[in-house]
Amino acid sequence: DGQITAGHIELEHIWFRYGEGPFILKDISMNIPPGATAAIVGPTGSGKSSLMNLLMRFYLPTEGVIRIDGQPLERFSDRELRSKMTWVLQDPFIFVGDILFNIRLGDDIGEAEAVQAARLVQADSFIRALPEGYHTPLGERGATLSAGQRQLLSFARAMARQPVILILDEATAHVDSETESAIQQALRTMRKGRTTVMIAHRLSTVVDADIIYVLHQGAIVEQGTHESL
Ligand code: ATP
Ligand code: MG
């Protein structure tokens, strides 16, 4: 089985449709070097999430090849993919359990690693301010977190796994400006040293990207840096 070490992502002439439906992705090619940040932008329904589904191997392309570190995606075990490539969802799911459980999610992650990940993304201060800190119960009958806090918690969850590749669906929820700047700072920290593919909604995120891909009706209509576009 293949191993993901550098995080070089290549898509070669990807075509995709759900079942017998219309083509949702049309001849998509991308080359994202190790450690680079790629931003995917485009209107609703343009195929951004579908593209992420293919990267995560939740669906297989109808045509074309996706490679990581030079090897086709099918060469990797589920375990390898799920441990080296982490997807941060737009609206992260909170499980019934305490904060620590929500960071570790039953994976082989120590308490110290979980706390360290929370510190890295600046989630530590709000967690410590909760009645029972890292042991505060969440979910039904537990504490309720704000949208921004849920986002930071999901960042800690992602970082605790130390992924080589980070797939991010940037949240669109409105948060206060203090939380917003914590999120932006956390995003910068998280991207450092790992390949990042993000569905970007904020101009600030787009500006920070090394490569921007503009999707429209399933095709890349523009690509380049923020200066060149
Ligand atoms: P948004 O900005 O609203 O999240 P998006 O760019 O992520 O949009 P996708 O969710 O990838 O767009 O959807 C692209 C197209 O694929 C849409 O026409 C959508 O209706 C269709 N689609 C998405 N998921 C499925 C599915 N599971 N089965 C069938 N069609 C789907
Ligand atoms: Mg989407």
Automatic annotation (TrEMBL):
Intracellular or extracellular location(s): Cell membrane
GO cellular component terms, semicolon-separated: plasma membrane
One Gene Ontology term of the molecular function aspect: ATP binding
- Principal localisation: membrane
| Occurrences of domain ABC transporter (ranges) | 9-229
Do the record's keywords include Nucleotide-binding?
yes
Q: Keywords of this protein's UniProt record, alphabetized?
A: ATP-binding, Cell membrane, Hydrolase, Membrane, Nucleotide-binding, Transmembrane, Transmembrane helix, Transport
Q: What is this protein called?
A: Xenobiotic-transporting ATPase
Species whose genome carries this gene: Sulfobacillus acidophilus (strain ATCC 700253 / DSM 10332 / NAL)
In terms of the parent sequence, the fragment covers 341 to 569 of 589
